[in-house]
Amino acid sequence: MLTALFFYLFAIVLIGAAVMVVSAKNPVHAVLYLILAFFNAAGLFVLLGAEFLAMILVVVYVGAVMVLFLFVVMMLDVNFAELRAGVLKILPIGLVVGLLLLFELLFVVGAWVTAPTLVNDAPAPPPAEVSNTKALGQLLYTDYVYLFEAAGLILLVAMIGAIVLTLHHRRDVKRQNIADQVARSPETAVEVVQVETGRGLQ
């Protein structure tokens, strides 16, 4: 009874926080709601017996990624009014992508309902012999190793995109030019000055 109560509590708060993430007008508030959603998802993982996933969700996503997002959103000078003005232009594409994702989710749920023996009757090791961390590692690095590497590539693309968004070229700031540095010769890089004894450079 107590487990079911906590499950519904975490689930309701998680759904509410997720709705507020996409509906909040202030991007900083959206990031804070996302942190709340991550905490409640970690609570659901604890109820499922996946303590390792819950701790990773709190330490990595809340402790590092969300704090980084918060600072990026606060420091990044994004013109949100201009972004909202262009929503109507890309609305048909967004609707097509949304319908495609909805179709995929319905397909997955239908496969789960119509063929429960393929999912629910899969052999599982006894919980006393295999820990959470070991079972997760065996799945990630054996059955889902290619998907794991694809997720790494997606994170790499996201990191490059964040760098491109925050990299502003200003004319009044002197930047490093590696090509010019490599092309320098000793004649242009070093100047030998003969200083007379008892006199300094003027």
TrEMBL record:
Its main location: membrane. GO terms for molecular function: NADH dehydrogenase (ubiquinone) activity; quinone binding. Pfam families: Oxidored_q3. It is found in: Cell membrane. It comes from the Bacteria. The chain crosses the membrane at residues 6-24, 31-50, 56-78, 90-113, 144-167. GO terms for cellular component: plasma membrane. Its EC number is 7.1.1.-. Keywords: Cell membrane, Membrane, NAD, Quinone, Transmembrane, Transmembrane helix, Ubiquinone. It catalyses: a quinone + NADH + 5 H(+)(in) = a quinol + NAD(+) + 4 H(+)(out). The keyword NAD applies. It is a multi-pass membrane protein. Belongs to the complex I subunit 6 family. NCBIfam families: PRK06638.1-4. NDH-1 shuttles electrons from NADH, via FMN and iron-sulfur (Fe-S) centers, to quinones in the respiratory chain. Couples the redox reaction to proton translocation (for every two electrons transferred, four hydrogen ions are translocated across the cytoplasmic membrane), and thus conserves the redox energy in a proton gradient. This is NADH-quinone oxidoreductase subunit J. It comes from Methyloceanibacter methanicus.
